[in-house]
Amino acid sequence: MDLRCPARPDPRCHRRPPRQKIVEHLKAAGLGALADLGFLGVDRSENPDDRVVTGYKATRHRKLTTGRKQANRILAAGRAPVEHGFAHLKAWRILTKLRTDPARATALLRALLVLTNLEAAR
Prior knowledge:
There is one protein chain. The protein is mainly alpha-helical and 122 residues long. The chain contains four helices and two strands; from the N terminus they run αββααα. It is globular. It starts with 17 loop residues before the first helix and ends with a helix.
């Protein structure tokens, strides 16, 4: 005997994808993003105000042109410092121990980023 009600749809299937929510939050704040290939379809929207930049993906039958390879390298060079910064924050586990005002947390994270950049520049 099946006690589940087939007439009730799963509420998760009517939600927007999480990537689209991120794009909406960025647009509301007037910000853009350099994204990885997980956001591949988001940057190809019909609205020119969307500021999400992703790289190009090659397939087995369609190789990347030299220009697209260069664009991927430039994008990777822009994303690398941010990815390294997040990796340091995760390794230090500073965000899990932080119990303070978000404004103070922003100042603290900026100071940590400066110290990380100084250490990386040595």
